[in-house]
Amino acid sequence: MDYSMNEPVKRAISSSEDESLEAECYSNQDDTFEKKYQVNEDDDSSSSDDDNAGDKKLSEHHRETFDFRNLDWGDVPTFIHSMDQGPMSLYDRQKARETKEQILNIKSRLAQENCILRPLYKNNGFHLCKNNEYQQKVSDFMTKTSIYSLINKLIDPYTDASKKCLADVVDQVQTTLDNLLHSQRLTKQKHSRMSINRSSVRLNYLYFTVDTRSEECPIQPIVVCNDGPTIGIAGYVGHLLGLLFNEATDCKLFSKSIDVIQAVEYYSQSGHLQPTTLFASFNIDDLCTRFSHDHAVAALERSLHSYAFDHLIQGMTIDTIVQLVRLVLENQYCVLGKNLYRQRIGGGSGLPLTIPLTYIYLFYWQQDPMNVFINKNELFGRYQDEAFITWNESEDELHTVLTLAHSEFPQYIWNTTGIGSKICFRDIELGHNNGRVRTTVNYLDSYMRNNALPSFLDILQQRIGDVWTWLRASLLNAVRYCSDDVNFEDVKSQMKFILSLNGFSDDTFNDGLHEFLDQFGVSTVDPSLTRTNCEIMRQHVFDNDKYRKAMEKNGLLQRKEQVTLHLPYVSPSETLVITQFEQELNNLLSEHRSDHSQMKDLKIKILPYRSPSFPIVDLLVHKRPPIHRLTLPETDQINKSSYGARHISF
Known about the structure:
Elements: H1 7-14, H2 33-37, H3 66-69, H4 76-81, H5 90-112, E1 115-119, E2 126-130, H6 131-145, E3 148-153, H7 161-182, H8 188-194, E4 204-210, E5 219-224, H9 231-249, E6 252-253, H10 257-269, E7 278-283, H11 285-288, H12 293-307, E8 312-313, E9 316-317, H13 318-330, E10 333-336, E11 339-343, H14 354-364, H15 367-370, E12 380-383, E13 386-391, H16 395-407, E14 415-420, E15 422-425, E16 428-433, E17 436-441, H17 446-449, H18 457-460, H19 467-481, H20 485-501, H21 506-519, H22 533-554, H23 556-560, E18 562-567, H24 575-592, E19 603-608, H25 616-620, H26 634-640, H27 643-647
Parallel strand pairs: 4-10, 6-12, 18-19
Antiparallel strand pairs: 1-2, 3-11, 4-5, 7-13, 7-14, 8-9, 10-11, 12-13, 15-16, 16-17
Helix pairs in contact: 9-13, 9-14, 12-13, 12-14, 19-20, 19-21
């Protein structure tokens, strides 16, 4: 079977505006104050307007907080000792002081016992292990997998080897892009989006997390590429390839959990969900780091030729796309400690090209074994490196098909995580009971698994800051996800348990629940007795989601023109005074801006300063090597900083 697209679909993508393929810019800046502290009622649950948003998202392991982006590990002790300094309320200062003492105690105990903490791979929390055992695991992984080849040890006389490597890659990437622009194989717009900012470019770096889903607790590599020299190309081309793959295979890319539930409900309403239907979930995280570059490129060429009969995709030839993909794959250099490596197989976990290319390799390297999964009457959905399918044949046949597919590849292609009438996918449990859709919240029990240094569990577990914000967001998700009252009651019990681990009583939960129920309309019984309380709440929550989404769109321009003044601290007794002052300022603006048309919508909003939350993982886990090993030589930054600007002017 050929996964080529029909003409209407092909024309729809080909004619889409180039802006829709804008490469994702992974900003290291913190969100604005308002966004950071407002109640997030979506909580990653509302439907996304971006059909490819799931391929753009970074996992928590790849994100870099603004405060620590330029802070070396050797400077962390100074940061810890000063974390209770600066403008903050007495309450915030006391909490910061308590946190500082806990962190210092943890670091002291780790040093005494020669232990380290590593982040959990697919969960929140930490894994505690002996330092020498962890180092041995890293050594064994590097030797046995052969994913990374050692280029240089960054010691005399090669201390600057990583800088020179970065400079060479930057020159190669920029020269390639310039040549493509000169030969009119790239537009100026695409060239600009893929080009490198020499003042901020950094070499990728590698560290490891621990996967506690297996008894052996294997380590998993994390490559951080947020400012890497090929991130512009990987973002643009990865986004394009993800769109093409989804259309060619009828795959649904999910960026929000509620989208998964709605897809399953539509599958049921269309008459495809049967009492014997099976769900199968799997992940391709191992394949992402182990595929052959040559095989992946061959699969990519096959997929592109099946799609583009005129050899043009978004104004680029197939040869140009393949050239750009090869450029990314061949220049995957990274630093781990004092060593410079090159990734010789697979793709960096933080590159937005890796996952779309892996799926293309999976479905196009050997097409015949995968044909059975391409069925318009079945569901095939994915989120990052996780996916699931529905199956309406026997379970034995499914196992046979999976075994056959594995046999056609030179490496293990996926890890099956569940087969049955229900599976876990992202933060939801989905499936059916005798043909009736059943969905609920899947609380990954990080609180119970996280037994690293149990005496400090309160700081190492995922903490609840503003309990009312957390409780409201959790209740909203419970209503969105739970398909019936029974599941909703079970989720409420789990929420109570999590609150108790954070030191909150049942009264806190009951007060928050009472307020929530009052707002979302279950104080009266449905007169027709055809809907349960859970169904009533769900409809009201969805109506509220639509209303807020519309209001956000209408208020977008006003928010852009709002000036925010941050005060060091406002005590509760001063709130009324500040509100009156804010109103007086806006009245003065209104009186004196009549002659300034550009200021007619200007408003002033005064918000209190909030103390930043402390990123515990950055304080306890050594991830990034020193900055000087990741940056260009200073002379290269100065001499060539305007290189790109000069080359897009012709």
